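Structure tokens please, single chain.
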Amino acid sequence: MTKSGKIRVGIGGWTFEPWECTFYPSDLPKKRQLEFAGKELRTIEINGTYYSSQKPETFARWAAEVPDDFIFSLKASRFVTNRKVLAEAGESMERFLTQGLTELGDHLGPILWQFAPTKKFEPEDFEGFLKLLPEKQDGLKLRHVVEVRNASFQAPDFIELLNKYNVAVVLAEHADYPMIADVTADFVYVRLQRGSDDIKTCYPPEGLDLWAERLKTFAAGGEPEGLEKSAPDRKADTTPRDVFAFFITSGKVNAPNGARELQKRVS
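Here you go.
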């Protein structure tokens, strides 16, 4: 394969007090932390949009503080995903999508729809949710990814549904949640959640090397070996694809350093 999609590695958010010792320069004003992170990393997953809405001018300000090729991922509102009947989430979804997030323009990346660990796979209702996801908002193309954390989603039928609607599924490396490494969209979204605060690069060097090779394989249109799929017999499209990878939760103190080191390995 001679072509490859772009690989962007980043972190969740940019404000975390320990990072003032492990990542940010000691004399850097807090108001310039996003500017600094934007130059050091390639992407950031914003968690605040999960809990509350933001103003259009806030999204515009974030966009103005990062380089041209920088991408934000937005975690979608909990009022959409934390409900019994997902197919009834249309009003809440519209409220989330019309709050002004398109002010990010070309900086807008995947929208992450995260579900509770107690949410089980109900094919008809989940397809009702997928049907609600728009391809565009205010003329801007949207990319959607779901994070499911219940083992009932480890089913070929779930993978086929996502593929039908070109929606990605989070590939989570987590101590408790299931790994679903199937490729179901034209991009791949990875959340690395087994880091350690005792390791300066969040993951050990051999772990970074392993994930670097996996991300490069995904970007080139392949599927890495050794990852758990829910439809193991299914072959994904071999077209090169963009890849997003985030160091999240575990090992958070050194997550930015892990992101920088992994980015070096794939660039």
